[in-house]
Amino acid sequence: MRDWTGSVAFITGGAQGIGLGIARALAKRGVTLVLADVDEAALARSAEELAREVVVRTYGLDVRDRDAFAKAAEEVESELGPVDLLFNNAGIVPYAAARELSYDKWDLALGVNLNGVINGVQTFLPRMLERRAGYIVNTASGAGLVPDAGVLYVTTKFAVVGLSESLRQAVAGHGVDVSVLCPGPVDTGIVGNTRSWGEDVAVPAGLVPAVEAFLRGGPGIDDVGEVVLAGMRARRPWIFTGDEIRPLLEERMAALLAAL
């Protein structure tokens, strides 16, 4: 088991939700934290909380912005040292019925949920490979393994799972580990946060109570943070927060095998 005390972690979506849960778990272990988020107010609150335990830096970062990613990486590694732990966690839960899909909605969903992960990987992976050290955790979803009708969200999360599984193979033997986090329901506030990106990609108001009740039925963000670190210690390819998708996953695997 690796001791990460003194390491530097870069967490996108780090000011709230699962990102904050991961940050809190890392803070307990003496990890220097870099929190990146689009929500400046949440960044300020989380930095004030976590700075009581460890060194914290914050960046107002839209993960679609490659130049901003590069600038943050340069500043962080110059001031704090190499980023050892990368958590590509920022994401939204965009929704559109089939008849309401548009290029703009696809661009937003892919830009944040997929390109945001790619940008994080491409910014920090070359540095990790050069040092032959690092750990990348990409946040996908249980919906990245078993689909539902939320085509925008599901498409991005399937892509993140595939990216992570392939990247894990590509960097094997180069000192870099990769895991993909596939959470089930977690009470993160993601439904409300997505609405701030535009009403036209938000979960319809009539469905919000049921969706939020479902999310509240899962573990809290602090429990998820501990689950993530346990998965990293075990170097698991996939990290789950529960087994809610088991029957759906079994059904999907059986159908795939039957189709061969």
Automatic annotation (TrEMBL):
Protein's UniProt keywords contain Oxidoreductase: yes
Any single Pfam family the record assigns to this protein: adh_short
Keywords from the UniProt entry: Oxidoreductase
Matching SUPFAM superfamilies: NAD(P)-binding Rossmann-fold domains
An example molecular function term from Gene Ontology annotations: oxidoreductase activity, acting on the CH-OH group of donors, NAD or NADP as acceptor
Protein name from the UniProt record: NADP-dependent 3-hydroxy acid dehydrogenase YdfG
PANTHER family: PKSB (PTHR24322), RETINOL DEHYDROGENASE 10 (PTHR24322:SF736)
Family indicated by similarity: Belongs to the short-chain dehydrogenases/reductases (SDR) family.
Xref: CDD domains: SDR_c
